[in-house]
Amino acid sequence: MDPSPLARRRDRRAATRSRTTTACARCQKRKIRCDGVVPVCGGCQRARVDCVEGWNVRDISRSHMEELEARIEWLESIIQEHLPHIDLRKSDSDYSTVVAQTAHTRDGWNPARDVTDQLGLVSVNAGADLRYLGPSSGLFFTRFVLTGLERRAEIARESPPASKGNQFVPAELLDLQPKDLPSDLKQAQWLTQAYFQSVHLQFPFLHRPTHLELLQKVYSGVDVTPVDQFQIFMVLAIGATIRSRQAKVLLSAEGYCASAIVHLDAIFQKSSLRGVQCMLLLQMYTINNPTSGISLWALHYNSLAAVMELGLHRNVRDSVFTDSDQEMRTRAFWCVYTMDRYLSTLLGRSIGIVDEQCDLRLPREINDEDLKPNQEIPAQAQPSGAITFMSSAIHLFKLARFNAEIKCVLYCVDRNYPPYTQPVITDVERWQEDMLNRLRQWKSSIPCHPPGSSACYLNDLLEIKYHELVMLIVRPSPLFNHPSRSLIRVCFHCALECIRLYYKLYINSMLHYNWMNVQSLFLCVMTIFYCVWAPDGVGEETDLDTVLHALKSASDILSATGEYWLEAKRSRDVLDSITRATVRRFARSLVRAGQSAISHPMGETHHSLAGDESIGSNRWDTEGYSAGIGEAEQDLFDPYYVPTQQPTATSELLSFFAGPQSETTLDWLNLPWDLPGGMGERIQDLVSGGN
After folding, report:
1. What's the whole-number mean pLDDT along residues 72-96?
2. How confident is the model over 207-230, as a mean pLDDT?
3. Any idea which of 175-179, 293-297, 351-355, 666-670 has the lowest mean pLDDT?
4. How many angstroms separate the Cα of 151 from the Cα of each of 41, 109, 477?
5. Is the pLDDT higher at 214 or at 265?
6. 273-288 and 323-347 helices cross at what angle (nearest 10)?
7. Which residues are CB-contacts of 603 (< 8 A; sequence separation ≥ 6)?
């Protein structure tokens, strides 16, 4: 495109100025020599006045005014087209007001859509093509938070430390070899049990009795098919990954996976239900093992294609399928469907299959032991209201449908209307309220496994999933750029509850370290920062104890996770910087309010993460979210959000969820707090567990 006349004129003036420096207006008026220093010449600097550009009449042609007027008309036409609410007929005296309003809008919340709505092509691995991460992935929410904090909290950009050069081992030296089955059947059963107690209760695409019988056959010397061997070794690989972290010992999960991969060609020769199960096993291994090097997204779409080809998404009533066959087909479909909703949300990409294309018949709530091949399933296999090992999985399947609706309504590309099913949603605020109510009803009916059972951790895990979806609804999105204060309180509460529940699982040794949990925890931390720093947030109402308890608990979990996700260290410096700025923010507020120290001791904080208290009896009564939130003087910071073209290193933070990881530890006790009047000692005591 040819440059505009004004641009050409500017270039000519710049070229002229490079040869002859034009004196500033003050020096021209006083007829003194100007040194031409930019942005302030020496004379103006000594006089402590603004240095205004001087003009040289030789640089201005006769057509210059006509060019300027034509360009102004062109710019005004653009403003009228894109910003019709701006009155261009106002006099020049109103110019400063318009500029101030425009600056406030630019520094405030409206341009948030530029961040939440932009395309995200980021590099997650060196040398690889850019990958797309959409608005629901958390990348832009993270960028949204960090961009504003960078200006408002004066967080400096720090270049990453140079690599020591000896932290990475070449892949060729690892030489992973296929590993044989454990020498003892009991050892294999121990690893297999870990799989069925963790993965299977959420993704029940295998039939437990059939698999255990298959394992027994192998140890009895019976020949089995390549598909059988693949499933046996993959279950052992996943089980070894889980047991390694529980027992703090190194088990050869990669060796079992290598033994399974040997049989991979036989699986893809033709589409089959067992082939879908094998691909799901690979996905489960990839989620739980960050060093697998397998593309989870590509693997998922292969399984999704097989589901469509086999017709698993339809309720086929045909005598060719027995009741048990039909049930396993339904389970496999729902596992792929749920994984599709998880990945499309976590990565911000399009869903793979829409609800209108599926029959969506839920599996029966029946234990695997009661699902026997070649036997008809009774109409009511379990007593009404009884909890089975399928109960939590079925409840997660129901939640996946809500996930799909939220994804399509709030994070759709087409802004004309949310293109989700019929009837067309015209009142999105009413839809938002209705969806929150439906989620509350879902939460109230979470199956409660008895304490001490192998499935009791699911009680907390399902509640975490509930809070994750609520945060997905109420945090800034392409449809809702500016959440109200009441919704920010809800978001803050859910982030605290998520971290509390994760910490509860962690201290009870029931937390399964996987890719999804790591990303969820990271976004909870970013959500807390957002809710504290947002202009309509809870920063002036909450107390420092509440925030520090949550961040310290997240720090403990991330430190433990860093043993397996080694690149988590990338996020540590950023989180540390924001934490320091957040503590300084609270410190300034306390000093202005005349408080000498933090008001609530650790044991009295309502949001104590070690307890099971919830904020308020009615979760959707916004008054119920004020517990632990007190009165404080309004902070006189600049508006929170400032658009920027630089990504604030968020591609590195999000690559933390897509590849090999590094050690992480938020080094709380070594932070340079720089706080007034004894507050530093109090905070040190808090984060180290004192009272």
Report:
1. 69
2. 95
3. 666-670
4. 28, 14, 21
5. 214
6. 40
7. 691
CATH topology of domain 425-596: 1.25.40
Please tell me what DSSP assigns to residue 370. G
Structure tokens at 51: 């240095």
3-state class (DSSP) for residue 651: helix
* pLDDT tens digits, one per residue of 633-649: 333 233 333 333 333 33
Q: Which CATH superfamily is domain 22-57 in?
A: Zn(2)-C6 fungal-type DNA-binding domain (4.10.240.10)
For residue 455, give the nearest of 518, 381, 366, 393 by alpha carbon.
393
Where are any strands of DSSP class E within 407-512? none
Closest by CA position to 210, among listed 243, 362, 200:
200
Identity of the highest mean pLDDT range in 502-516, 619-633, 646-660: 502-516
Domain residue limits, the chain: 22-57, 178-370+388-400, 425-596
C-alpha pair distances (Å), 27 with each of 46, 55, 542: 12, 11, 54
Residue length of the chain: 691
pLDDT digits (tens, 9 = 90+) for 478-488: 888 888 899 99
Chain centroid offset of residue 576 CA: 18
Both tokens of 660, joined, read: 């090999």
Task: Report how far residue 246's alpha carbon sits from residue 13's, in angstroms, rounded to the nearest whole number.
Answer: 70
Residue 532 to residue 647: CA distance in whole angstroms: 21
Predicted TM-score (pTM) of the model is: 0.69
